[in-house]
Every structure is written in C-alpha cells, then in structure tokens.
Amino acid sequence: MQLRLDALEAHLAKGLAGLYVVYGDEHLLAQEACDRIRVTARAAGFTDRSVFTVERGFDWSSLLGASQSMSLFGDRQLVELRIPSGKPGKEGADALKALAAAVNDDVLTIVTLPRLDAATQKSAWFTALADAGAALKIDPVERAQLPNWVGQRLAAQGQRVAAGEEGRRALAFIAERVEGNLLAAHQEIQKLGLLYPAGSLSFEQVHDAVLNVARYDVFKLNEAMLAGDVGRLSRMLDGLRGEGEAAVLVLWAVVEEVRTLLRIKRGVAAGKPLAMLVRENRVWGPRERLIGPALSRVTEGAMEKALALAARLDRQVKGLSGGTPGNHRNDPPPDPWDGLFELAMTVASPKSAPVPPPRPRAGAGAPGRRPA
Hints:
nucleotidyltransferase; DNA_pol3_delta_N
C-alpha cells in the first residue's frame, strides 16, 4: 500500500500496519514520519526495539532472527532496518522478501531507504515490502513551495506572519535564508516560537531572529541556471565561495549541465522525443520541469562557446593559466569566480552573457570568509 505523508496521521489513528517502508532524501520529514510511527507503536505495546544498519558484510540472518524471535519479557517488538545505500544486494533482496512474508502482529518493522529510482521501486523486494505494509514516499519540498511550508509550520506552533505583502515578504525571507535546507528552516521556526509569543509576527521580528543559515549546495546551482534565476545564481555562487567550496567542483557541476543541455539540444534537432532524451540524460526532479524553458533560451552554438570558456576556466582554476586584463578578448576574467558566473549565465540568461551584470561581492573582504 502506498501512503502519502499528509495521510500518515489519519492512517495511524485507524491502526498500525505490520510493516512500514519510509524512503526519500528529505531527512527531516523522514525522521518525523518515523518518530510518529514509533510513538504510535510504543502506545500499542511495541516497547522492545532493535535497530539494524546495513553495511558491507551485514548479517541478514540476524535481522530475520530478530523479526521472528519473541522478546524475553513478552513485549511486542519494534524492528528498524536502515539501508543507507538503498541497495540490499541479492542476499538482502531475498531476506527482505522473507521479512515481508513473515509479518506478524507482535512485530512491527520500519525499513528506511534513500530516494529510489523507478526501477528499484518496481523490484521484487520493494514490491513485497510495500504489499506487506505501507510504503511512505518522502518527496522533497521544492523551493517554490517552501514559503507555504514555513507558514504551515508556524501555524502548528500557534504563530503566523502578518497579513498581505509584509507576511509574504517574511516567508520569502526565511525561504531565501535557509536555501532549501529543511532542517535549518525547522530550527529557525522553533527559534521564532521561543523568542515570540503565539500570534502574528512582523517582518522586522522575523528579520531580526532568522540567521543566514543557508548551506549552499553546489548541485542546486543547476536548478538556478535552468530556471534563469540570476539573483539566486549570484547568491549561491557567493555563498559557495564564502563557505570555501573548491572552484573546480563548482566548475564541474556547471559544465555537466552545459553538456547535458547540448546533448539534449542536438537530440531534439535530430528528431528524438524530448521525454526520451531527458530519461537518457538522467534529468530528474525539479530539473526535469526546467529543462524545456532552458532549451528554448539557449542555442547549440552558445553551448559550444560555453564549453570553450569552460576549458579555459578549467586551466585557470587548476593554476595552469589565467586571464590577463586586455590580453585577449576570449580570456576568462582574472577572478575565476567571475568566470564561473559568466559561464553559468550562458544558460541562465544568454542575452546577458558573456558579459555578466554587476553584482555584489558578498565574499569579498567579509570576516570569516575564505578566498577562493
């Protein structure tokens, strides 16, 4: 049985299933879902808890033994199985099918997994687990949905932002500061609950309380590029630089997106269906929805020029060469981070590339920031 996260509370109120599979990469939401199942399980008498984590050389027989043995004190058992890789292997797949077939009223099992691709979700072991209990998919909260998510969390602790534009600005401010990090957003929301009483929060209260807790993710640059969100792109590059991220890693992430766009652009020109090209190039999640508008902005020639710029930047960030002002019109900027912005702009805003618009340098000279 597939179960939506927003339906978990109603499901638990009706009674527990014998087995739960919780899978997805949004760790905060997965942890909260497991906590809610555990609380309900303890109230139902499942007080003897065993936890197994699958690592190299894991003994699957120990899991099956625990799920089939009775507690020494006659308590009902809660067995938790964590598979961080999402790949149990052949022996593990057989053990999981046996586990699903052995569900009984005195043992409740929670299996946690990361995000799974479509093929894994159709595998025999996963299907057996889902059929034996409830499979709970934890979808990420996309950035566009984050302000509403923050508002719902505030409401759950008896708070709300001011009505109208001021409230929307406050929610957007929190979303921008946490940059998609739900755990950080959760902590900031809890802090607001500690600092202020129940009721309405002004923008000034939110602004004063919320720290810039963004942990910029180099791979989310791709989303900002494809969306054409120049402001977010600039903030993320400055944030990555300030956090000491290696320029060569950022360059690799940007170049991979340029190469993907070029392959898909050429495939579409050759008459291949876009949906097939998206699958072949492993474009998933938010990127899948953004790839179409991005393709309409860029040209094959522009992507080829972007790769030529990337080759020069690669030599520059590795210390093999660098651009010198006035030396050659095709040289990258003297600062490699400006070159990275220029490269990303060939996708985000081709009309502005290759000369990027002026932007604030959040990392320059700021205390505690490490230069690239």
